[in-house]
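Throughout this chapter, every protein is written as a compact record of paired, labelled lines. The reader may check this reading against the record printed directly beneath this paragraph:
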Amino acid sequence: MAEVDPPGAFTAPAYGDRSLADVVPSVARALGVDLDGHPTGLELPPAPSYVVFLIDGMGAALLARYGHSAPYLSSLLEGSATGTAGVPSTTATSLTSLGTGLTPGAHGLVGFTARVPGTDRLLNHLWWDQDVDPLEWQPHPTAFGRLAHAGVHVTSVNKRDFAGTGLTVASQRGSAYVGADRVGERIAGTVAAASHSPSLTYVYDSDLDWTGHKFGVASTQWLQQLAMVDAEAEQLREALPSATRLVVVADHGMVDSPRESRVDVDSVDGMREGISLIGGEARFRHLYCAARAVDDVVATWREVLGTHATVLTREDAIGRGWFGDVHPSVLPRLGDVMVACHGDAAVMSSVDFAYEGTLVGLHGSLTPAEMLIPILVG
């Protein structure tokens, strides 16, 4: 029997309209370039240059709730669009959708961790694995690269440590890379890149996400970090030429998950039965099952988790459109069974993912708090 979500529990990804995969194609049109007729409902004003500033972890609900700590970004909310992350709502998936203009089912980075087909191991898409070639894992040309091929000056401004990583190659290849670790460096590098016309400059800040994971989005530390990134955005806008448009987006939101809302699969009898490998992350699990074990795994996990999560087979999740159209090479990377958490629930594994147990803020599922992202134009 198909599982039914509680009313309002999930927000569907707005692929082809206002998802992260639609941002760069929309910028391209505003620059006068058509990326293969990519349809999107996001309209941006024409300009000779654009800067896309991605603030990791700044969901639309969080910005609305704590706008008093972000006066500049809040001033852009009126008349702005609200977009969505893809599924799952996690950084590697989202950054690749932004940089490629593709849905997760096409670009293939389908979670924080996912199975390497034909093996019994996971690929961590943030930390990567030297044995996995990012050009084979994500073989499609990026939207950044297609824009550069069309004559647009495309630049990525990001931390030096991220240069040449598997995720950067998969998601941002085709753009010039400027290493910048501090706010002043990021602003200076972005302003220099945006002086070209036509140009697209992508700049990334990860500190808000890190703070949310460590302290939670209800913490004083998170509010202070939000105020700092708000000041960074305002300083960036002031430093840019007046003709350059600034678009501020996020890759996902975040929820705080208290201990009493967490289920440890290694502490509940039967939850590991029939499962060869557990992937994904605490709010969105990929379960890779033994032969003919899918139905039993679905039944067990639905019984244990009850109203705390939606448990679906791979086919049902694809049928819901969670990943967009799924390329055949991507299919085996998806779990045979997928678990998307409701509310503030989380599915932990103290054996396989002990580090996740130390985190306060989490993301990955389809709740509005995680899926809805701001698209602010300044």
